[in-house]
């Protein structure tokens, strides 16, 4: 938790800020319980429980560093071996399922000391548009509460097992990488905007436009079909202006591609550095409250000092992990701040996003 260490000497404005800030939650996607994982083990075998705790730490390291190879990193082997020393909680949540929570600050301290990247819980929201083809003429689009065939009707019973398997594999992959995901509602608005042909043909412009209602930072478009060695997917990853195709891939490969890309942009290495922030268009106490409340929630920020406020321009000095470019990308995720200009060395400029247009 960061601390707003100094407030403006404008008592009336500050009083209003406290009155409105609690009404303005951040819209940034967060992966809650980033340092808590559940693994499978035998409750009657103490050695198995110890191994499960180490497996849980390995899972956490993948999430927090953003690297799939983190558990193999020699510098992190002592952390995995001593996993029990870093736990905050542990126990069976149901038979055979052991849940372990780790102390965030202690794990991050080791990662920082070892020069490893650290990626906080503020993460891009990825909307998944996935069509499943059973190879026998049946096709269905996966949604938040089920699936629909090309006519918008429920998917036939024969595809239920295939659909459930694909959804489960994607859900598990998202959990393992620590990625917030959303499925389309497949209501009238979605089904009138996007067809199965749009998804299978990779017509990303229509799909990206339809994803705006979900506050998406990125869109992952997949077409699943039977292959020689199981199901194969043609993935298209849309992230800002980037378009990256991944043909003939596995079901989880699209989310792994997204996770690797996000981590490259948003993870930080090393201790905190000082950056100046200028936020423009802070025109009302509600704007001020949104900005301050939003910054207070950002795990990448270790300290925030409000330096001045004058005619709609808020100036702050912050201590943040990573360099200014990473900080800019992280702060732009939440739909509260928008990069306004390239600042001078060690400074960033933003403008406030209209609350009525933010996700």
What is this structure's SSE topology?
Layout: E1 4-6, H1 11-21, E2 36-40, H2 46-65, H3 77-81, E3 87-94, E4 97-102, H4 104-113, E5 126-133, E6 139-143, E7 146-148, H5 160-177, E8 181-182, H6 188-193, H7 196-200, H8 204-211, E9 218-227, E10 230-239, E11 242-249, H9 253-266, E12 272-280, H10 285-296, E13 301-310, E14 313-321, H11 324-331, E15 337-341, E16 347-352
Parallel strand pairs: 1-13, 5-8, 5-9, 12-16
Antiparallel strand pairs: 2-4, 3-4, 5-6, 6-7, 9-10, 10-11, 12-14, 13-14, 15-16
Helix pairs in contact: 1-10
Tell me the Rg in angstroms.
Answer: 22 Å
What percent of residues adopt helix (DSSP H or I)? 25-40%
Share in β-strands: 25-35%
pLDDT average, as an integer?
A: 87
> Can you count the helices?
11
The helix-strand sequence is EHEHHEEHEEEHEHHHEEEHEHEEHEE
Low-confidence stretches: 1-27
Largest sheet: 7 strands, mixed
In angstroms, what separates the terminal alpha carbons?
A: 24 Å
Given helix and strand content, the structural type is alpha+beta
Q: Care to count the β-strands?
A: 16
Q: Can you tell me the number of structural domains?
A: 3
- How does the overall form come out from the CA principal axes? globular
Explain what you see.
With 359 residues, the chain is of the alpha+beta class. The protein has 3 domains: 4-27 and 268-352, no CATH class; 36-113, no CATH class; 126-265, no CATH class. The chain contains 11 helices and 16 strands. The strands form 3 sheets. Strands 5, 6, 7, 8, 9, 10 and 11 form a 7-stranded mixed β-sheet that branches.
